[in-house]
Amino acid sequence: MIKVLSVASEAVPLVKTGGLADVAGALPAALAGEGVEVTTMLPGYPAVKATLAKGTRAVAKWDDLLGHPARLLAGKIDGNKLLVLDCPALFDRPGGPYQAPDGVDWPDNWHRFAAFALAAAEVAMGYAKGRRFDLVHAHDWQAAMVPAYMSYADPALALPSVLTIHNMAFQGWYPAQVFPQLGLPAGAFTVDGVESYGGVGFLKAGMQAASAITTVSPTYAAEIRSAEFGMGLEGLVQARGGDVSGILNGIDPAVWHPAHDAALATPYDAASLDRRTTNKRAVEAAFGLDEDDGPLFTVISRLTWQKGMDVLPAVLDHLVGNGGRLALLGSGDAAIEQSFLAAATRHSGRIGVRIGYDEALSHLLQGGADAILVPSRFEPCGLTQLYGLAYGCLPVVARTGGLADTVIDANPAALAAGVATGVQFDGISEHSLRAAIDRTLALYRQPDTWRRLQTNGMAADFSWAASARAYAALYRSLTGAKA
């Protein structure tokens, strides 16, 4: 049995802002069948401590953790082992994990997550009595300093480590003035340590120190070797060479499955796709759309430049003019939000927009819309296209990152072979988006072909099983454990 300490700033079902939480929350159960016991360590946000109020106990304490007292609480969630860093001065605050209630990042995030990483590194190396680990798995910049702290500790105590990059765009970079307060030796502030472009780079430090680096899809692992996707760290990615690999994210079929999804107006499976019409009617009612059997597109996304949402509004007149409709659920950049709201006003009954997020409504959209648009400029993995495949909601995606790895384009060869599952396109531009929409509309007008695309996608296995096998194999290679 390999014992892994998984260190993350969020994990479902306790706290979530993005896909990182899905991965950190799903892996423990998936890895249990692979001979891996995972203990997840999280910061003690108010919501986390409130959920775990009963049945937790303190197993370690710090009188001075980078300037603050702290305790380590132990408990369980859904049967999985959990450790929580209870440091009220740093984490007992309103708002989200990283931002104040006004949406602005906490100015001391560097302090908060340095302390969290230092505590996790010490726990990994035996600070909490009776808790032994074989390997540390750190997620994103908030936990990336764990391998860095271990690299400056007693070599006899340091453990092998994996750092998973969920999005290279978020690196945790801070000015050099914070370095003296990190509890590291002076020699750590070098290009081979934590220094990055004149400041302190949390993600960069972890990439330098980790035994292995993974991303959340094979294509993204290749993309970040280039300047276009490497966000200034492509040189380090190249230098790490074979230590960098991609392991595709999965989805939880217990949560995302149209045959037993309580958020749908009616359940269905691949043998009863006609039932999707009932869900389509429910989407139309929820978004104030005209009722018809023409193609209904959906967008479930953050409304940001990365997601290509600045370009999509310009092609909505074309989408509607060719018989399509759109139901959009999301929030983000205020100017982009306004452009979609203006399109909804311009095309009343054909475009419906909900600013915000609603988990149940996102399920209904996957179960009732015909196609989901995912025009991301870069996408480390992506989850909405996986949900679309599982629900027979055809993904129309940019050919990048995990989108390229999970959707098989409906080109003539794939159609002839009977393996296509969606539509891919290159480049984020008005021209490429219009062309992708036109291809999707043409496929929709071929009912037999469309149904085959749906059933192909629904037959694909994007559960966590394959990902768990890959992570377990990586852990074994780093620890020397046998299968």
From TrEMBL:
<dbReference type="GO" id="GO:0004373">
    <property type="term" value="F:alpha-1,4-glucan glucosyltransferase (UDP-glucose donor) activity"/>
</dbReference>
<keyword id="KW-0328">Glycosyltransferase</keyword>
<protein>
    <recommendedName>
        <fullName>Glycogen synthase</fullName>
        <ecNumber>2.4.1.21</ecNumber>
    </recommendedName>
</protein>
<dbReference type="GO" id="GO:0005978">
    <property type="term" value="P:glycogen biosynthetic process"/>
</dbReference>
<dbReference type="GO" id="GO:0009011">
    <property type="term" value="F:alpha-1,4-glucan glucosyltransferase (ADP-glucose donor) activity"/>
</dbReference>
<keyword id="KW-0808">Transferase</keyword>
<comment type="similarity">
    <text>Belongs to the glycosyltransferase 1 family. Bacterial/plant glycogen synthase subfamily.</text>
</comment>
<feature type="binding site">
    <location>
        <position position="16"/>
    </location>
    <ligand>
        <name>ADP-alpha-D-glucose</name>
    </ligand>
</feature>
<feature type="domain" description="Glycosyl transferase family 1">
    <location>
        <begin position="292"/>
        <end position="444"/>
    </location>
</feature>
<keyword id="KW-0320">Glycogen biosynthesis</keyword>
<feature type="domain" description="Starch synthase catalytic">
    <location>
        <begin position="3"/>
        <end position="238"/>
    </location>
</feature>
<comment type="function">
    <text>Synthesizes alpha-1,4-glucan chains using ADP-glucose.</text>
</comment>
<dbReference type="Pfam" id="PF08323">
    <property type="entry name" value="Glyco_transf_5"/>
</dbReference>
<dbReference type="InterPro" id="IPR001296">
    <property type="entry name" value="Glyco_trans_1"/>
</dbReference>
<comment type="pathway">
    <text>Glycan biosynthesis; glycogen biosynthesis.</text>
</comment>
<dbReference type="GO" id="GO:0005829">
    <property type="term" value="C:cytosol"/>
</dbReference>
<dbReference type="InterPro" id="IPR011835">
    <property type="entry name" value="GS/SS"/>
</dbReference>
<dbReference type="Pfam" id="PF00534">
    <property type="entry name" value="Glycos_transf_1"/>
</dbReference>
<dbReference type="InterPro" id="IPR013534">
    <property type="entry name" value="Starch_synth_cat_dom"/>
</dbReference>
